[in-house]
Amino acid sequence: MPRRLAEHEVISLAGLLKMERDALAVSKAMQELITDDELKKQAEAGILAAEGRIKGFQQFISENQLANIMEAD
Questions:
Q1: What is the mean pLDDT of the chain?
Q2: I want to staple 24 with a disulfide (CB 3.0 to 4.6 A). Which of 6, 50, 57, 66 is the partner?
Q3: Which range is least confidently modeled, 28-32, 35-39, 67-71?
């Protein structure tokens, strides 16, 4: 059964999703500039973590029938 979220919760969720997507785009762009192997591995781990968080948000949005959040991006 989908959860009913308050309007401010929906707005916050949309903002968090946008921030994660923006941060992921920056991280991917910056990764191309990294030459140190250890730092490159850390950057890759950060990218994978961000992708996981985004997938979690998307799953929550889908399960709770909040598709309009993803359309707003």
A1: 90
A2: 50
A3: 67-71
